[in-house]
C-alpha cells in the first residue's frame, strides 16, 4: 500500500534518513521488499516540526504527486531544514486518485497523521463513516482517502485528549460499521500520529495480519553493537525512527513492533501498550 517513516530526537537534516540511508524511504518507494506493492510512486509527503517544538507546536507540510525519487524539491527541503520530529510517507494508491490532497501526512492543528493500509469496503461504508465525523471537523477533509476519514473519526472520538483511546474508538467504529455491511475484516494497517512532542505508532488489522512496522534500537546500544560504523556518529543519543521497513541491513538495529500494539516514543524512549486487544475491546 504505502511506506512511511517517523523520526524523533535531536534536530537533524531529514535527508539523512529519508534519502541517504542504505534502505531509505525513497529507496523503498522504488523497491519495497516487505511491502504489499514493490513500487510506491503515487506521490509523497513530508511533515516536520520546528526546532524547539513541544506539544502543541504547529508542523509544516509538503505534498507532491511526483514520485519521491523524481522530486528535486524533496532534496532541497530535507537538506535545508533541521527538525527534531518529522514524518514522511510514499504512496501506492489503492483506488483514490493521485492528487495532492490524498498525500500523507495529514495535519490538523498541531497533529500529524499517516497510514499504511486500507479500510476494506470503504466505498460501502463511506457514507456511514463520514457522517460520523464531527460537523466542525468535516470541512477539514480535503481529499478522498479512507485514511483521512479515519484520522477525522479519531479526532471526533477524542484523539486530542486521549490519542490511544481516540484511535481505539475510531477503529472500533470502523469494525462495527464494517460488520453491518457484511465486511469481516475492515481494518488493515499501521498508523503514525504525533502532537509535536510524542509519536504514537499503531500496528493493527482486523484479521491479525498487519503491515510491517519496525523501530530502531537506541543509539548508545547501536554504538556498542557497531563501533566501527561511521554513519551512526551522525545521530544524537536520543535519535530514533519508526519505519515500515528497516533502513539498513545491520542485524539487531531494528525491532519489529508487535501485532495489535502501539509503540509510544517520548522523551524517555519507547513504551508499548496493547491496541485493540481483548482487554481494550472489553
TrEMBL record:
Record domain Glutamine amidotransferase type-2: where: 2-282
Keyword Transferase part of the UniProt annotation: yes
Protein name in the entry: Class II glutamine amidotransferase
Domain of life: Bacteria
GO molecular function, one term: transferase activity
PANTHER family: GLUTAMINE AMIDOTRANSFERASE DUG3-RELATED
Keyword Transferase applies: yes
Annotated CDD domains: YafJ
Keyword terms, alphabetized: Glutamine amidotransferase, Transferase
Coiled coil feature spans: none
Organism from which the protein derives: Agromyces fucosus
Amino acid at each position: 500500500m504505502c511506506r512511511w517513516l517517523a523520526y524523533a530526537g535531536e534536530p537533524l537534516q531529514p535527508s539523512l534518513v529519508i534519502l541517504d540511508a542504505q534502505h531509505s524511504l525513497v529507496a523503498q518507494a522504488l523497491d519495497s521488499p516487505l511491502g504489499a506493492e514493490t513500487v510506491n510512486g503515487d506521490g509523497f509527503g513530508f511533515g516536520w516540526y520546528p526546532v524547539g517544538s513541544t506539544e502543541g507546536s504547529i508542523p509544516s507540510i509538503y505534498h507532491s504527486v511526483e514520485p519521491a525519487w523524481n522530486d528535486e524539491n524533496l532534496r532541497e527541503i530535507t537538506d535545508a531544514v533541521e527538525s527534531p520530529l518529522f514524518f514522511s510517507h510514499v504512496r501506492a494508491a489503492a483506488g483514490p486518485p493521485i492528487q495532492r490532497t490524498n498525500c500523507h501526512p495529514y495535519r490538523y492543528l498541531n497533529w500529524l497523521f499517516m497510514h499504511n493500509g486500507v479500510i476494506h469496503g470503504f466505498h460501502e461504508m463511506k457514507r456511514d463513516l463520514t457522517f460520523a465525523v464531527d460537523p466542525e471537523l468535516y470541512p477539514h477533509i480535503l481529499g478522498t482517502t479512507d485514511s483521512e476519514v479515519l484520522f477525522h473519526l479519531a479526532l471526533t472520538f477524542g484523539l486530542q485528549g486521549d490519542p490511544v483511546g481516540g484511535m481505539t474508538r475510531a477503529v472500533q467504529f470502523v469494525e462495527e460499521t464494517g460488520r453491518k455491511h457484511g465486511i469481516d475484516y475492515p481494518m488493515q494497517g499501521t498508523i503514525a500520529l504525533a502532537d509535536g512532542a510524542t509519536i504514537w505508532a499503531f500496528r493493527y488489522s482486523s484479521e491479525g495480519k498487519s503491515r510491517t512496522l519496525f523501530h530502531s534500537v537506541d543509539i548508545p546500544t547501536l554504538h556498542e553493537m557497531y563501533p566501527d560504523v561511521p554513519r551512526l556518529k551522525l545521530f544524537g543519543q536520543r535519535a530514533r525512527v519508526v519505519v515500515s521497513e528497516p533502513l539498513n541491513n545491520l542485524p539487531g538495529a531494528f525491532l519489529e513492533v508487535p501485532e495489535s500494539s502501539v509503540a509510544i516514543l517520548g522523551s524517555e524512549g519507547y513504551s508499548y501498550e496493547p491496541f485493540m486487544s481483548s482487554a481494550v475491546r472489553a
